[in-house]
UniProtKB/TrEMBL annotation, chain A:
Pfam families: LUD_dom. PANTHER family: LACTATE UTILIZATION PROTEIN C (PTHR43682:SF1). This is LUD domain-containing protein. Gene3D superfamilies: NagB/RpiA/CoA transferase-like (3.40.50.10420). It comes from Phycicoccus elongatus Lp2.
Amino acid sequence: MSARDEMLARIRTANAAAGAGPTGRLVPPVEVQHGDVDLFCENVADYRATVVRTREGEVAGAIGRVVGDLGIGSLLVPAGADPDWTTALGPEVSVLQVDDGTAISYDELGAVGATLTSSSVSVARTGTIILDHSAGQGRRELTLVPDRHICVVAARTVVDDVPDAVARLAALGVEQRPLTWISGPSATSDIELDRVEGVHGPRTLVVIVVDDD
Amino acid sequence: MHLREKFLRAKVAVSGANFAVAETGTLVVVESEGNGRMCLTLPETLISVVGIEKVVPRFADLGPLLTLLPRSSTGERMNPYTSMWTGVTPGDGPQDVHVVLVDNGRTHVLADPVGRQALRCIRCSACLNVCPVYERTGGHAYGSVYPGPIGAILNPQLRGVGSEVDASLPYASSLCGACFEACPVRIDIPEVLVDLRTKVVEAKGASAEGVGMGAMGWLFGSAGRLGLAQRAATLAGRLSRGRMPRNLPGPLSGWTNARDLPAPPPETFRDWWMRTHDADGTRRDGSDR
């Protein structure tokens, strides 16, 4: 008998001994609610991320201003990102295009000024951005090791609350992809339940919210 | 920066998980600082050690659980980082992934009709924050990684009540119920504590206290026996004429070190009632009319 069989047998015996019936569906199906974009922006800003609101067609300009304001010299852009986004950068900014096969050391990644990505789903009530690390979002290390993350959020991807986001991820069929939920920059609340920013993850998070036309 | 260097150079990482989804094989880590992301993303090999109670049936079950956990834990709307992964993703993160599912006493807890609810715990620590006993003792007193009220019901179940600390944990509570009120997954911690106290007493076997309590139970079990005992006590009180000892002898002296032994009254309540009342409950002297 393998350890797995032994454990499964113990679980079945225990459930029978405790008189536990079969477990049904714990959570009723969720009809995904659209989120309030104003509330999303307010909550993201409350977590000390920078929020920039812009419109379709004006995204490149907004990115150019953010990169200029932060004095970023090199911008990492994962493959699949909208090529228009980098059209308004100053001549002093070098753009580093990274596709899935591009080998890049952690030292190089750490030296990058910022990573620019899109996002999959966002949550209004919690100010959360979810990356599924598909095209335009890059593999996980690209948004982890660099100290700044500039993330573009399309207003139509904002849902109301956490259960809506879980349901949307399943509807998109990305629930088995690596998923990173980000609610503000790196922080800890371990010390006396006070939130302190900037521990291991990127210390600067800029969220560019693109309203639908 | 020292810690960051270690993260960037580590070849193997060991993690836990907050939830594991049966339907998709997905593991979930809820954290704040980003050290979890570093651990789950950068090394070549990832070994995740997960208790079997962390398994939930469906991906959709994460909706309410991820809503409850940060709000009950730190009071935040949402924790800074939540990571989910399902096995190996080619070209992204560790390419060698292992999951170790741990029983270690959990199926023993699962078999207990009362105690099994403790396995619902999502480790939010809300019960710790409201517990008057935890506030005084701190976490180390619980002798485990699970402190506070949930530790007081989880540790004795996982490890048994054989050791001194595990036998004492069910008593580390005033049964005030604040933990039950704070618990987001509705674990009736006081109920389990009382059930575990029974188990501790049963495990101890026969004791002088048990014999004494048994005798008291026999005495209180019949009105006739209680009446006889009360009559004997009042008789002893009358005969001693106020010279009853203030302290009990031997091992019972501990109880009277800080308390006076009450002198038996000259008349029991039941005798007084019979003397002053008619059979229909009215006073003979008419004072309550």
